[in-house]
Amino acid sequence: MKINFSSIKKLSNQKNMLKTTLTFILLIFSFSCVFSQNAADVNENIPQEISDGPYIFIEPNNLVEKTIVDGKVVSKILDKNAFDTVFTAETETFKNVKNIAALSDIHGQYDLAVELLKNNKIIDKNLNWNFGKGHLVLVGDIFDRGSKVNEMLWLLYKLENQAKKKGGKVHFLLGNHEYMVLHQDLRYINEKYKTTSTLLNLPYDKLYSNKTVLGRWLRSKPTMIKINNSVFVHGGISKDFLAQKNFNIDEINDTMRKSIDRSKKEMKSTNFYDEYYGKKSLIWYRGYFNDNLQDTEISEILNHIKSEHIIVGHCSNEEVVQLFDGKIYGVDSSIKKGKYGEILFIENNQYSRRMLDGQRKPFTGNAALKVDID
Q1: How far is CA 271 from each of CA 53, 136, 237, 267, 278, rounded to the nearest angstrom?
Q2: Strands (DSSP E) along the chain, which ranges?
Q3: Under the phi-then-psi rule, with left for phi > 0, alpha for psi from -120 to 50, and beta for the rest, what region is 145?
Q4: 348: left (phi > 0), else alpha (psi -120 to 50), else beta?
Q5: Contact criterion met (CB below 8 Å) for 240 and 280
Q6: Which of the four pLDDT bands, split at 50, 70 and 90, describes residue 53?
Q7: Whole-angstrom Cα distance, residue 283 to residue 314?
Q8: Phi and psi for 370 in degrees, rounded to 5?
Q9: Which pLDDT band holds residue 49 (cuts at 50, 70, 90)?
Q10: Distance spanning both ends of the chain, measured CA to CA
Q11: Residues facing 354 on adjacent strands
């Protein structure tokens, strides 16, 4: 039998072509499946029900409001006068204030903070100012961790204006987490805000830049204030900080405000960064809780700053605490956990703890101390 090698070769070539084609089709199918799966994973990571805002951006001739509703960005043009865009720093020393309330480290736990403020008669059931001529002090760290930072900022923004009309004051002091966000350190932002950043196509810190209403408002805020005979500051005042400069609250606050828009590289080129952002700085110091300081050392600090008390946040406890025979008060009562919180009340120079339900309780010292590490 005569074998037709030509036909066999032709048939073999056809089979090889078919095999190559099938292999190519399978590869395309495989890549398609992988791509589809990755796309599905990405979409699953963006909650479609997310709502956030508003974020008010300042344009030359108007304002632009951007809000996220059910995962969709809604933009609106506003009149340039719809919101204040110029915020002037006010004096940071106040005298003859009868009623003061202080808390700190809310960290985006808006609902718990609202419950605490309502039950202690700082705000009414409609979230309006109810503290008359009293002063409310937020001792830093509204930002990071929780999912309702922006809601808390807008509430304080509103209460600040309402309090002024009643002869009262809202003081929002900047803590280490405010400065972290404003300096592009976004390690602790909630996952929600990563989504917000993606949807608005802006880095999170740019939502609070100098070209936004809240960004300018934040840049007017102090790091430290004095009311009557008490100084309020997020971390604390260390001996090291006092040794490097004259203690002048207005000058220190002005320096901190100006540092917001300075780069870390510039600040680290001198000893400025260590002084104002280091472990012994006003916003990071934990010495009252960690350094086994003696009562005489605390007295020296108080004599230097001409004050009788220092009220701080930053170091978490299970309640508001009194240290060094009432010279130091810690008002970080772990609100950031979203379960419980307290307020320090100062009424006619008498200091007391107020519970989440509004009850008054005595101080119990260094109660359940749990110091943060960030």
Answers
A1: 38, 34, 18, 8, 10
A2: 52-58, 63-69, 72-78, 93-94, 99-103, 135-138, 169-172, 224-227, 230-233, 309-312, 321-323, 328-330, 343-347, 350-354, 360-361
A3: left
A4: left
A5: yes
A6: very high
A7: 8
A8: -140, 95
A9: confident
A10: 88
A11: 343, 360
| Longest pairwise C-alpha distance within the chain | 120
367: Cα separation from own chain's centroid: 25
Break the chain into its structural domains and give their ranges: 1-43, 93-361
Q: What is the per-residue pLDDT across 81-90, written as a single tens digit (0 to 9) for each? A: 999 999 999 8
pLDDT digits (tens, 9 = 90+) for 234-276: 999 999 999 987 899 999 999 999 999 999 999 999 999 999 9
What is the amino acid identity at position 128?
A: N
Helix (H, G, I), strand (E, B) or coil at 24: helix
Q: From the centroid of its chain, how far is CA 107?
A: 6
The stretch 146-163 carries a mean pLDDT of 98
Q: Which amino acid is at 34?
A: V
**Paired tokens of 2:** 């005569």
pLDDT at 47: 55
Computed over every residue of the chain, the mean pLDDT equals: 89
Q: Kindly report the CATH class assigned to 93-361.
A: alpha beta
Residue type, 317: N
Distance CA 256, CA 32 (A): 53
How far is residue 241 from each of residues 151, 159, 233, 273, 276, measured CA to CA in Å?
Answer: 34, 33, 13, 12, 8
| The pLDDT of residue 321 is above 90 | yes
* Separation between Cα atoms, residue 178 and residue 234, nearest integer Å: 11
Return the closest-CA partner of residue 210 out of 258, 143, 273. 258
Separation CA 346–CA 9 (nearest Å): 99
Q: What is the predicted pLDDT for the residue at 5? A: 35
